[in-house]
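User:
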Amino acid sequence: MSDDIYGAKGSIKYYFSLSICVLFAGLAPQGLASTGKDKVVTDTYSIESKDAREMARLRNLVKDEVPFPIVILNRQALQVNLAIQKRRHPGIPEHRLKSEIVQAEVKKQSGLQLHPGLGESYYNEIESNLELAMIHGYDYSRFSISDDTTGKFCMLYPGRRDLDNERLSRFVTDFRPESYQSLAQLKLKPILSRQEHIHLADLHEFSHCIDDHYFVEYLEGRVKGSGPYFENRARIELKAEVLGILLITKYEGAKDLARRRSQERYLDSWFRGRNVAVSSGDETGLYSGATYAFGPALEHLQNEIDRLGPARLQQFSTSELIGLAERVVEAAVLDFSQMTALTEAYLNPERALTRSPQSDFIKNYLGKVADSLLAVTQSGLNKKQVIETIIQNKSVPNSTIISFPEVDAMDEATTRRVLRDIAPYFHEVRQLDHLLTRLGKIEDNLAQQIESSQEHERVQAMQQYRVLPQAFAQALEQLALAN
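Assistant: Predicted structure:
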């Protein structure tokens, strides 16, 4: 998740990438890639793994409602393809190879010819962002070039696979001292499984890709004014969340998922939103917290799921699930006055509880935040104590996205050690196709180890998963590749 926001205050052309979706009209660099017959990258290589098969299955769940092609870019696969192409074409600049790899992937998955000036931009975007969906081809798309004739498609970046469930739970609730302060001493207990976290992140993004209502309204420039803008953005994100939950509930039989997810969302919207708002001292909390305040709507969704019952929900087509998702959105999304009140509460909760026209809403919301914290942690606190602590925590230091140094910021010595440990997995492989097959098997094994009951085994597997592309590149040096 990245909470950086760019653009003039009050302008509709902002850049957002809060883990879920980018909404911004930007200019991509031009003249960075080759065109036409001089391309050196004409195809891409896939990693055959359980994860890749799962992504294909998830794509299949929404295939009947796709308004335009979906292109899935996997960070690991891009890095592996770059290693292969750098080995084959050592004299070609890296930025050109990046651009051509993405162009080839877009062509392979959609049949579209991506503008050569956009390939590197999409590659670099996945280097700096996590799960993300970007619909291309509109005036307000993330990347826009005046002479672009690519056509419309949705670029999707899958969610993180390199974290265990304890860290994924901390990630989605922003559970760290900078946000929770003294409450961060509580022990977090995950209430979603690792598979539920990953599949919901991915299906949230797939749901963006099939949103030809709220998302397209924004991309076509039909949303004017700050109030309608934030309400539209909240609808975009909430619809994706609701539809993702409905798809998992129908196809994977998840129980009480909307209720459990509402607890994570209450915590994330308050603690991460307040962290950013207090750090910036302005309405930035609208982006980071209030437009992601899905808790009330997800409780409404759970009531709808319970009312329908599992047998009735199983009969719903994807189109009917989309209709249900939009009804939930319209019935339960926060309006602009509530989002503004929540943002004001981030900055001064005591004032919001006593002097705001929305004080009853804030009081109820804080109560839900406290209930959620008690549900996901092991503590001897009661609800009143949690609320008092939340209110008393007045100062939140400026901080960036939550990270896990043992995985996200390995030093050189640790990286060398992890690469040395994983190198034997690639021994005695002398052909590229065999090396790619071995890579997929290693990825599958590490995914299992990330779910180990032993912390040290999970950390080791997460670190090895993170450096897999580097290990592959080292093994590649032993192969003779044809250009």
